[in-house]
Amino acid sequence: MVLGLALLGDVVQSLLRWDREALAAGEVWRWVSGHLVHLDLYHAALNILAAILLAAVFGKIFRVWQTLLIVSVAVAIIDVGLWWLSDIDWYVGSSGVLHAFAAAAVVRSIVDRQDPLAWAIAVFGLAKIGWENTVGALPLTPSANLVVTDVHLYGVLAGMLTGLMLRRLTAAA
Length: 173
Description:
The protein is built from nine helices and two strands. By secondary structure, it is mainly α. The protein has a single domain, classed as Rhomboid-like (Rhomboid-like fold), CATH 1.20.1540.
């Protein structure tokens, strides 16, 4: 779906992006669709590759319903963060949701198995988020001036929260 939307171009992107003014006017689909459209085909391809990598590394940690819960919570928290804590006018991309999935998987890997690789990823991820929110986008990031680093932060927070919440839910079951 992400690739198909990217191939449809700028007109579709402008109709579906997270857009503060359009949301205020009642275009509620943008709360979700903004996470599916991208700046261009290259941006979409990067997010698709990141999703494939995350699925390869962490794909067996969660059941389908848990992954859907992570995505839903991430979209909600990212949207609330953008609306209340940011002054941006519009946003497109899946990177915040991808950060949420990675954070949830890392949290579960640490809590459930004390996985040393997960600890290393957590340290790197937290350093990355710290850098982005104090210095700006990482060096060598394509279109660094267009990276909405707040979305990565909100995604990581959503993922950590959901990863811990799912741990409690599965432990109680």
